[in-house]
Write a structure and sequence with these properties.
about 10% helix; four-stranded antiparallel β-sheet; 1 helix
């Protein structure tokens, strides 16, 4: 019996305001006057470096909904890595580099039972009418 292996290559050109490949959604996360680079992703969280010309670089995080500036100092914060709710990077203050770790809280979604109980309560409250 002869075994045949087939390899398929798919190329996606998703750069610089191009249309998304069929079935993909492209979301622009930044639109500012600084250079944003070195993105890393974990789940729906994305971290990257924002470089301010000739002054410093800072770490930013997008949690799937909004962007937060994680660092704000006079050092060059670079090379962020993200895993779950932890972000690690190195910061250079001019004489040496140091390693930093930040852990953020990821809100847990409401469970199905809790959501159903809340919906039932709201429905019951809406059916009660107060008569004066």
């Amino acid at each position: 019996m002869k075994t045949t292996t087939t390899f398929a290559t798919v190329s996606l050109a998703l750069c610089c305001n191009s249309d998304a490949y069929a079935g993909w959604t492209v979301t622009q996360l930044t639109n500012n006057s600084i250079n944003d680079r070195d993105p890393q992703i974990s789940g729906s969280n994305v971290v990257w470096v924002g470089t301010f010309p000739a002054t410093r670089s800072e770490i930013f995080i997008w949690d799937g909904t909004s962007t937060t500036q994680l660092t704000n100092n006079n050092t060059y914060d670079r090379d962020p890595q993200i895993s779950g709710s932890s972000v690690v990077w190195h910061g250079r203050d001019g004489s040496d580099s140091e390693i930093f770790l930040a852990t953020f809280v990821i809100p847990e979604p409401a469970t199905s039972a809790l959501a159903l109980a809340l919906a039932a309560l709201l429905l019951a409250m809406s059916r009660r009418r107060v008569r004066l």
